[in-house]
Amino acid sequence: MVSYLFVGVLTPVMRKIAIATDVVDRPNSSHKSHKKPVPYLGGVAIIIGVITVSYSASLFSQFTSSTFWLATSVLGPALLLGLIGLWDDIKNLPPLPRFIAQTLAGVFTASILIITDNIGNPTGSSIFDSIITVVWIVGICNSINFFDNLDGGAAGTVAISSIALAYLALNGDQYLIAALSVVTAGSTLGFLVWNKSPAKIYMGDAGALFLGVLLATLTVRFEPTAQTQIGSFMIPVFLLAIPILDTTVAVLSRIRRHLSPFQGGQDHLSHRLIRSGFSRKQSAFILWTLSAFFAGFSMMLSKQFLFNDISVVGIGIVLLVILLFVFFKQRDS
Known about the structure:
The chain is an all-alpha fold and about 325 residues long. The protein has 13 helices and 2 strands, in the order H-E-E-H-H-H-H-H-H-H-H-H-H-H-H. It is globular and about 50 Å long.
């Protein structure tokens, strides 16, 4: 609640600063669908909210140096990527510096997790665990950044995934992950008040990269309690299924058209929904609903809630993902 109120109050302040300093997103390229310039710096409000509330709360909750460094190992790489994203919002960086920074954040996080034996679901091989961690962090970081293409779409989806992750972590007695997930959910919901359609402010790359690294790191640290190894691996994937699906569809579409995967375009899930006749608000609601559905399934994987044979349901969910992929791919521009 504190992070929700804090970011909700801070966001319009950052909006005024963005307008005063001319840090705005202008509709100056074909892949942008808004008609008027929209201020950035919403991501700065999210970053300040998450970091301030997290460290402030730790001071009132058995604060120790180990807790401080544990939280910093999660928030530090996210802050670094957030600052690079802010630089990109202001200066419009090419893709390569962002990719290098994401990779370095992934390598740093993988090193910390392997050294401290704090990775959530290890394979038994340090090298393989490290590779998976780096690929996951870079992939999710880009997925959240790509997914931020619709008013309220990314903020709402991140909030839903964070709430589900907090539930899973709390039930698994992983309290630091649960706490950071709750703060992330509150911050994104506070920002969503101003970012829902029609958006008064965007999170920009600062917010998208920060949230991407933060969610990727938390899900890597999270130790699932599924009954099977494959179920444990699938829980983080289903938590972030819609951003992953969005990136997969967009990247494959661009490769098919001989375009750079990092090039912007009207080929994301939101654009395809809008071309199918849905409004921007309806498209955001559909994406939130799908995100909630898959997040709910990740919780069922952990508890086998309501189902004795979760594998049968799992096959059905995989088929649903395939059907969604086909549905959205058929709506190529």
